[in-house]
């Protein structure tokens, strides 16, 4: 475990998967991250790389060859190296190796920088193409935040508030984890989504191209909450395991295959392309109070 802290928050991260383990507001004496109870879902904040979601048949094709990747890719199950650390920031690094090259034929360096300032946590992703040809990949976040946040409150006391009015359908997920062809209207000229556990009985709420780039947890019965800012992420997943006391806010640069995917990596919806020796950067930020 590696710990960073400001005057307000203390954050702990595992080297396996560079996964957040705790986000604790010292001033409010509140833990913001899900406990990881394996009876519901044993993870807390997996990093999604080099794919987001599920591939059709767990398979893709590149340059005429077939490759296999399980849901959300391999980064979440690999040990990262800590390549830089001070009191308020830490950098985790994963580089391509003989294992990754078997099913992801690209040379890369993937850096994740966690940094804190006051009540803010910033998570920055840098993907460097260290190979000689263009690289195709996706990257995303999957943090699970504890709900109810405060003792004595209930799940239904909380709402997610978008920073713009939304007219956005959800894209249903098939039994095989693929994106269906017909969206279903969910956010109909509103900026607030009341939380209820029934929302997630048919898997995640998947959105494309939201107008908003900030989602805030609010409640009428407590002043405590948080906001996640995610500029530059074109896809969003909101999810909780069945009857679990958390909600995931998942900014994605990438998305699961559609049910009609041709499985060609270069044709994949949301795929990111980075030329040789070039760098891709994105960051999301959590504010707690």
Task: Estimate percent helicity.
Answer: under 10%
**Percent strand:** 35-45%
User: How do the SSEs run, as a string of H and E?
Assistant: EEEEEEEEHEEEEEEEEEEEEEE
| Annotated CATH architecture | Distorted Sandwich
Task: Supply the helix-strand structural class.
Answer: mainly beta
Query: Biggest sheet, strands in spatial order?
Result: 7-8-9-10-22-18-17-14-15
* Shape annotation: globular
- Extract low-pLDDT stretches: none
At the first level of CATH, the class is Mainly Beta
CATH fold category name: Beta-galactosidase, Chain A, domain 5
What number of structural domains do the residues give?
Answer: 1
Whole-angstrom Rg: 19 Å
C-alpha termini separation = 24 Å
Mean pLDDT: 97
- Biggest pleated-sheet summary: 9 strands, antiparallel
Q: Total helix count?
A: 1
Task: Give a written overview of the molecule.
With 289 residues, the protein is mostly beta strands. It has one domain (2-288): Beta-galactosidase, Chain A, domain 5, CATH 2.70.98.10. Helix content is 2%, strand content 45%. It is built from 1 helix and 22 strands. The protein has one helix at residues 98-103; strands spanning 2-5, 9-13, 20-25, 30-31, 59-62, 65-68, 81-86, 89-95, 108-117, 120-129, 135-137, 139-140, 144-146, 158-170, 184-194, 205-208, 214-219, 226-229, 235-239, 246-253, 272-274, 279-288. The strands form 5 sheets. A 9-stranded antiparallel β-sheet has the order 7-8-9-10-22-18-17-14-15, with no helix packed on it. Strands 12, 13, 16, 19 and 20 form a 5-stranded antiparallel β-sheet that branches. A 4-stranded antiparallel β-sheet has the order 1-2-3-4, with no helix packed on it. Strand 5 and strand 6 form a beta hairpin. The longest helix has 6 residues, at 98-103. The radius of gyration is 19 Å and the shape is globular. The two termini are 24 Å apart.
């Amino acid at each position: 475990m590696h710990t960073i802290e400001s005057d307000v928050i203390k954050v702990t991260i595992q080297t396996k998967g560079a996964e957040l383990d705790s986000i604790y507001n010292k001033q409010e004496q509140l833990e913001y991250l899900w406990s990881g109870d394996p009876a519901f879902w044993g993870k807390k904040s997996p990093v999604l790389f080099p794919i987001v979601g599920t591939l059709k048949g767990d398979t893709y094709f590149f340059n005429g060859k077939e490759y296999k990747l399980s849901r959300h890719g391999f980064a979440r199950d690999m040990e990262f190296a800590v390549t830089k650390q001070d009191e308020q920031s830490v950098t985790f690094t994963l580089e391509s190796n003989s294992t990754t090259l078997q099913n992801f034929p690209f040379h890369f360096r993937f850096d994740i920088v966690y940094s804190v300032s006051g009540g803010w946590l910033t998570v920055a992703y840098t993907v460097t193409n260290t190979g000689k040809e263009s690289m195709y990949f996706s990257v995303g976040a999957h943090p699970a935040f504890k709900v109810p946040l405060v003792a004595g409150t209930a799940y239904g006391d909380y709402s997610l508030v978008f920073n713009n009015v939304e007219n956005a359908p959800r894209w249903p997920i098939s039994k095989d984890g693929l994106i269906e062809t017909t969206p279903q209207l969910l956010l109909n000229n509103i900026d607030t989504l009341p939380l209820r556990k029934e929302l997630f009985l048919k898997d995640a709420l998947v959105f494309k191209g939201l107008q908003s780039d900030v989602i805030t947890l609010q409640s009428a019965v407590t002043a405590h909450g948080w906001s996640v800012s995610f500029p530059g992420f074109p896809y969003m997943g909101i999810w909780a395991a069945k009857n679990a006391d958390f909600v995931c806010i998942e900014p994605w640069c990438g998305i699961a295959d559609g049910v009609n995917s041709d499985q060609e990596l270069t044709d994949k919806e949301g795929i990111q392309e980075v030329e040789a020796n070039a760098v891709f950067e994105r960051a999301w930020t959590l504010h707690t109070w």
